[in-house]
UniProtKB/TrEMBL annotation:
Residues 1-24 form the signal peptide. Residues 28-91, 167-229 form the SLH domain. Residues 228-539 form the GH18 domain. GO terms for molecular function: chitin binding; hydrolase activity. Keywords: Hydrolase, Signal. This is Glycosyl hydrolase family 18 protein. GO terms for biological process: carbohydrate metabolic process. It comes from the Bacteria. Transmembrane segments: none annotated. It holds the Pfam family Glyco_hydro_18. The keyword Hydrolase applies.
């Protein structure tokens, strides 16, 4: 379950736009100079940057305390709502012409009635004016009320907002424009805007960091609790997680590998694999646990360059022999398989696209109605995966978005910006979102500076958790990666990027945000009890 990324890029962007391409990556891989990991708004800002909802300025800063203009905020709102301007129903404003950069976003919001009250009697919107808190609440409340049924909306507009106003009892409630109150208080009710000891402060200008917080709350509200399918990879060392089987929808049993024996000959290997994709003793306990938990079972097959995978794919006779062996095991009633998972890695050359696509079609036919899952790496350097074809043939496609490690730059394995970028690229390349599963790996990247040299390690989750129990060791938020960040001194200076429970939550949200089919866990034995609590909440 590996995919290597050989080049890292660090880029700066323009205000409210995606970053420019540098080398392979488009995502922001350097923190804003004025938003450290200790800032209260850091997670909000870097989450939005990861999904390209906003960015900073050419000077490398985000300018968190600067006031946000009306047009800047409306762009964020329309982007978050994933809507657009209908050119067939043009809007006219006296101070927002069609040539203004913000016209499509302002037009989209106006078409939907979200900002009608922000247009003055002369037909002007005043796009460059700083947006005030009551205007933010009004626009967000309008958007959210649109999602209610007609009866629910009517009830709120008639009396619901009055109960909310009474329960909140803001000291400055009289300062809120009377016509906006139903919408303002709905935004408050839904947790989009919070008051302070001074009240709601309706006339206060909204800062850029406050805008990021508001929009991030909206994105999380919109993603909600959309159901996700959870796949666990029971492989390598996962016996300790056997009791977690009921938390899964599907389990991929990583007990087989490609055994290519040379021209015309290949079979399904279940022992002797150096990567530990071997069937363990006592495997019956695992399949029985899956069956009693009503979890679907996949036969997983692993192969990489060490298994001569590219040579195998070019050998039609060997493929035929392999699929025959696969079909026999797949149909063996002692396992009770419901599907097969093909994890073939290291396909670098574009010349392998057609061969791999043909092989998957052969596997699909051999599966005789059982489901086909295919794992794929991010698209950057692996050209042997015909994603449109894979997206059509496979029932599920698992994106292995967790090995971006680039040691010279201390780029960790699964930074949220690159995970998000990989999801976008995979969907754009032709894999339907409704078939795509976001792969999550519980991996830690540790860099040790000692005596003028830097070494690398990847400790087990259990070792990291034990280290965190020691005095003076704590995890903070790494930015812009949004992983756990651990530093301590012990025979050298240690820096760790850790996929903790909070960072898993962010990736689960990301899967919901992009409308994916589900998430997968590589591998089950690495996940902690705290992680499993988060996973339990997914279903």
């Amino acid at each position: 379950m590996n995919n290597k990324k050989w080049v890292a890029a660090a880029v700066l962007g323009c205000m409210l736009t995606g970053s420019a391409t540098a080398n392979a990556y488009e995502s922001r891989l350097k923190p804003f100079g004025d938003v450290p990991e200790s800032a209260w708004s850091a997670e909000h800002i870097y989450t939005l940057a990861a999904v390209q909802a906003l960015d900073g300025y050419q000077d490398g800063g985000f300018h968190p305390l600067a006031a946000m203009s009306r047009e800047e905020f409306i762009k964020l709102l329309v982007t978050a709502a994933k809507t657009g301007y209908d050119a067939g129903h043009p809007v006219t404003l006296t101070d927002v012409g069609r040539d203004r950069w913000s016209y499509p976003m302002i037009g989209a919001a106006l078409q939907r009635g979200w900002i009608k009250a922000m247009v003055d009697s002369g037909g002007a919107f005043h796009p460059a004016a700083p947006i005030r808190r009551e205007e933010v609440a009004y626009a967000m409340g309008s958007l959210l009320l649109d999602k209610l049924s007609e009866a629910e909306r009517a009830s709120w507009l008639a009396s619901g907002w009055k109960r909310e106003q009474s329960s909140r009892a803001f000291a400055d409630a009289a300062g809120v424009d009377e016509a906006l109150k139903p919408y303002v208080y709905y935004a408050v009710n839904r947790g989009m805007l919070e008051g302070s000891e001074n009240g709601l402060e309706p006339d206060k200008q909204l800062s850029r960091q406050e805008a990021a917080a508001v929009i991030n709350r909206l994105l999380h509200k919109e993603a909600g609790n959309k159901p996700l399918e959870v796949t666990g990879f029971y492989a390598v060392q996962s016996y300790n997680s056997l009791g977690k089987m009921p938390l899964l929808d599907r389990v991929a049993l990583g007990w087989w590998h490609l055994n290519y024996e040379g021209a015309g000959s290949a079979k399904l290997g279940s022992a002797g694999d150096p990567f530990k994709f071997n069937r363990p003793d006592g495997w019956e306990e695992v399949t029985a646990s899956a069956s009693s938990s009503h979890v679907s079972k996949d036969l997983m097959v692993f192969a990489n360059k060490s298994h001569r995978v590219e040579e195998f794919l070019g050998d039609a006779a060997a493929r035929k022999a392999f699929t025959a062996a696969l079909a026999e095991t797949l149909s063996d009633p002692k396992y009770g398989f419901t599907g097969v998972c093909i994890d073939f890695e290291d396909l670098y050359g574009a010349g392998k696209k057609a061969e791999f696509a043909a092989f998957l079609s052969e596997v699909k036919e051999a599966a005789k109605g059982k489901t086909l899952t295919v794992t794929v790496p991010p698209t950057y350097y692996f050209e042997g995966y015909d994603l449109p074809s894979i997206g059509k043939t496979a029932d599920t496609v698992i994106l292995m978005a967790y090995d971006f490690l680039y040691k010279p730059d201390r780029l960790p394995s699964a930074p949220l910006p690159l995970v998000a970028e990989a999801v976008r690229d995979t969907i754009k390349a032709g894999v339907p979102a409704e078939k795509l599963v976001l792969g999550m790996s519980k991996k830690t990247d540790q860099f040790i500076d000692q005596g003028g040299t830097t070494t690398y390690a990847s400790p087990a989750s259990s070792a990291v958790e034990e280290r965190l129990k020691k005095p003076g060791v704590k995890s903070t938020l790494s930015v812009p990666y949004l992983l756990g960040h651990i530093r301590y001194t012990d025979g050298g200076a240690h820096e760790l990027f850790y996929e903790d429970s909070d960072s898993l939550d962010r990736k689960i949200w990301l899967a919901r945000y992009y409308g994916l089919k589900g998430v997968s866990l590589w591998y089950m034995g690495q996940f902690t009890d705290s992680d499993w609590q988060r996973i339990d909440a997914v279903k």
